[in-house]
C-alpha cells in the first residue's frame, strides 16, 4: 500500500483487477477478512456467511464476464462489486491509507474492522447490499421476471438474518431468545438463511416461471418464507431502513409485499399457500405489533 493513494482509489483498483475473474473476486473477498496485514483472527469467523454467499453466486454463474460464452448478470455483478469495494476500502483505511471513507457503507465496514460483532457485520454487509440494490434498480428491471422475483426473496432473507441478531422481537416474537444464535454469521446455522441454493437452482438465467418454482418449494424454506418472514415484511423493512440509514429501502415494499423491480399488481405471488403447516406457524409465531425495534 502506498501512502499517497487513498483507500477508495486503492479499493477501486483491487476490484477492477478481478472484475472479469469470478474466482479472483472470491479470493479478494477472502483476503478482506485477513485484514491489511494478513492476520485478523477475530474477523475470520465472519467469513463463513460471506463466502457461502459468494460460492452460491459462482455456482450460478452470475459473476461471469459479459463476454463469456454464458454471460453473467450485470445486476449481480454490480451488487457483488459494491460489497467488494466497500470491504477493500475498509481494509485500506485500517492499513493506513488516506481517507476519509468515501461512503457510509465503507465506513460501516471500517466499524466492523474496529469492533467485529455480529451486528456490526450485518450493518456492513447488508448496508452494501441495500446500497447496491437501490443504486442498480435499472439493471434489475432488465432481468427476467423469475430473476426479479428471487432478487426480492434474497433481500428478504438477508434483512431477516440481520433482524435475528439485532431485532429479535421482530424476527421471532416469543422465541426471540433463540434469534441471535440462529442469525449469527459465524455459525453453521446461518446457512439456512443465507445459502440461497436452498431457494433457487444453481443456474443463470432462470427459465422456469415463478409459479413453477413456488410449486417446487417445500419443507423448511417454504415455512420460513411464507410462515415466518412474510407476515413481518413491512415491519422488517421499516426496521432495516432505520438500522441501515437507508430510507430508500421503504420503496422496496408496499403493504407487506416486496416491490423491488416487481409490480405491486402482481403481489399475489407473496401470498402464503393454503397449508396447515404455514397456518400453524402463523398461530405459534405471530408478528408482535407495536413493539420497539429491538
Report on this model:
- A hairpin with a 2-residue loop joins strand 1 (253-254) and strand 2.
- The protein has helices at residues 7-18, 22-32, 47-60, 74-94, 104-114, 118-135, 137-141, 145-166, 168-172, 179-183, 191-194, 210-216, 220-229, 233-243, 276-284; strands spanning 253-254, 257-258.
- Strands 1-2 form a two-stranded antiparallel sheet.
- It is built from 15 helices and two strands.
- It starts with 6 loop residues before the first helix and ends in a 10-residue tail after the last helix.
- It has one domain.
- With 294 residues, it is an all-alpha fold.
- Helix 1 (7-18) runs antiparallel to helix 2 (22-32), helix 1 (7-18) crosses helix 4 and helix 2 packs parallel to helix 4.
Q: Order of SSEs, N→C? A: HHHHHHHHHHHHHHEEH
Calculate the mean pLDDT score and round it.
90
Poorly predicted tracts of residues: none
User: Structural class of the helix and strand makeup?
Assistant: mainly alpha
Largest sheet: 2 strands, antiparallel
Distance between the termini: 41 Å
What general outline do the C-alpha atoms trace? Answer: globular
The share of residues in extended strands comes to under 5%
Number of domains: 1
* Major sheet: arrangement of strands: 1-2
* Extended strand count: 2
Helix content: 55-70%
Amino acid at each position: 500500500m502506498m501512502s499517497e493513494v487513498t483507500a477508495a482509489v486503492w479499493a477501486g483498483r483491487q476490484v477492477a483487477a478481478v472484475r472479469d475473474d469470478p474466482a479472483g473476486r472470491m479470493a479478494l473477498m477472502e483476503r478482506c477478512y485477513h485484514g491489511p496485514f494478513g492476520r485478523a483472527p477475530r474477523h475470520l469467523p465472519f467469513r463463513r456467511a460471506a463466502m457461502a454467499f459468494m460460492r452460491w453466486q459462482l455456482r450460478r454463474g452470475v459473476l461471469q464476464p459479459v463476454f463469456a460464452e454464458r454471460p453473467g448478470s450485470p445486476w449481480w455483478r454490480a451488487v457483488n462489486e459494491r460489497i467488494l469495494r466497500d470491504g477493500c476500502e475498509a481494509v485500506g483505511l485500517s492499513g493506513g491509507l488516506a481517507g476519509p471513507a468515501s461512503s457510509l457503507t465503507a465506513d460501516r465496514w471500517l466499524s466492523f474492522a474496529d469492533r467485529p460483532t455480529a451486528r456490526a457485520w450485518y450493518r456492513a454487509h447488508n448496508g452494501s447490499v441495500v446500497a447496491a440494490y437501490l443504486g442498480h434498480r435499472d439493471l434489475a428491471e432488465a432481468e427476467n421476471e423469475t430473476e426479479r422475483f428471487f432478487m426480492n426473496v434474497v433481500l428478504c432473507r438477508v434483512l431477516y438474518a440481520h433482524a435475528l441478531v439485532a431485532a429479535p422481537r421482530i424476527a421471532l416474537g416469543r422465541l426471540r431468545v433463540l434469534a441471535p444464535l440462529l442469525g449469527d454469521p459465524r455459525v453453521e446455522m446461518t446457512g439456512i438463511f443465507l445459502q440461497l441454493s436452498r431457494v433457487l437452482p444453481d443456474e443463470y438465467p432462470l427459465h422456469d416461471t415463478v409459479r413453477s418454482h413456488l410449486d417446487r418449494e417445500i419443507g423448511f424454506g417454504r415455512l420460513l418464507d411464507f410462515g415466518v418472514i412474510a407476515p413481518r415484511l413491512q415491519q422488517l423493512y421499516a426496521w432495516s431502513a432505520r438500522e441501515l440509514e437507508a430510507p430508500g429501502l421503504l420503496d422496496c415494499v408496499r403493504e407487506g409485499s416486496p416491490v423491488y423491480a416487481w409490480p405491486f399488481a402482481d403481489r399475489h405471488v407473496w401470498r402464503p399457500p393454503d397449508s396447515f403447516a404455514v397456518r400453524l406457524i402463523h398461530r405459534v409465531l405471530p408478528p408482535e405489533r407495536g413493539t420497539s425495534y429491538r
